[in-house]
Design brief:
The mean pLDDT is 83. The chain starts with a helix and ends with a helix. The protein is an all-alpha fold and 101 residues long. It has six helices and no strands. It has two domains: 67 residues, Orthogonal Bundle (Flagellar transcriptional activator fold), CATH 1.10.4000.10; 33 residues.
Length: 101
């Protein structure tokens, strides 16, 4: 796996973990449903500080589980991302998406 790919995975994981934590902070039960978390998993995620979250994100595996069966939703998402600036990093795109929540 290339260094660039690994770095992208780390950035994605970090953005994903921040999103999960943000949603769980607002409503832990909603976060548990949306991200298929147990009470223990959600509580553990909420207990991690930024440094621990960053360490957790630095794995070579993508931490998100996708359930992308809805063709219409996928099409809309793809079209909206194509309109974004292609030079924007994955992390800055994820931060932008999180900021609207």
């Amino acid at each position: 796996m290339s260094t660039h790919t690994l770095q992208s995975i780390h950035e994605f994981n970090l953005a994903y973990l921040y999103l999960v934590r943000k949603i769980c902070t607002k409503d832990i039960h909603q976060g548990m449903r949306q991200f298929n978390l147990t009470q223990e998993g959600a509580s553990k995620l909420l207990s991690l500080d930024d440094q621990a979250l960053t360490r957790l994100a630095r794995t070579s595996c993508v931490m998100a589980q996708f359930d992308l069966k809805d063709h219409e939703l996928l099409t809309q998402l793809a079209e909206s991302f194509e309109k974004k600036t292609r030079n924007q990093s994955v992390l800055s795109q994820a931060r932008e998406a999180i900021s609207v929540l």
